[in-house]
Amino acid sequence: MPTIQDWHDLDVRTGRIVRAEPNTGARDPAHCLWIDFGELGELQSSAKITDLYQADELVGRTVVAVTGFDSMRIGGFRSDVLVIGAETPDGVVLLRPDVDVEPGTVVA
């Protein structure tokens, strides 16, 4: 069973999407995201969020992501972080702060 320490061991932060385009190499529909995480720099993610989001409407949006993972390749695209959202019957709804915060802000 996970403990509170397991949560504290994760590095969850906010980031601002600066570029997005379809990940045409992915097995499942996904978007390639380039995300500004402030002091961590610009990191990438392949996110399966195509049911509710078009790539062009994601730029400028603040998201919540787990950082600090080893990078992996998804459909030929380097993915550094896991963007998180709520799974609904209509697709994944991105989590985001309800007020503007700086990219790289730690999620507590």
Distance between the termini: 20 Å
Within CATH, the superfamily carries the name Nucleic acid-binding proteins
* Approximate shape: globular
Examine the secondary-structure arrangement and name the CATH architecture: Beta Barrel
Helix content: under 10%
What are the SSEs and their pairings?
Elements: H1 4-9, E1 11-22, E2 31-36, E3 42-47, E4 62-67, E5 72-74, E6 77-79, E7 82-83, E8 85-88, E9 91-94
Antiparallel strand pairs: 1-2, 1-4, 2-3, 4-7, 5-6, 8-9
Task: Provide a descriptive summary of the structure in words.
Helices cover 6% and strands 43% of the residues. The chain is mainly beta. It has one domain (4-94): OB fold (Dihydrolipoamide Acetyltransferase, E2P), CATH 2.40.50. The strands form 3 sheets. It has a 5-stranded antiparallel beta sheet. A two-stranded antiparallel sheet has the order 5-6. The protein has a two-stranded antiparallel ribbon with strand order 8-9. The radius of gyration is 13 Å and the shape is globular. 24% of the residues are buried.
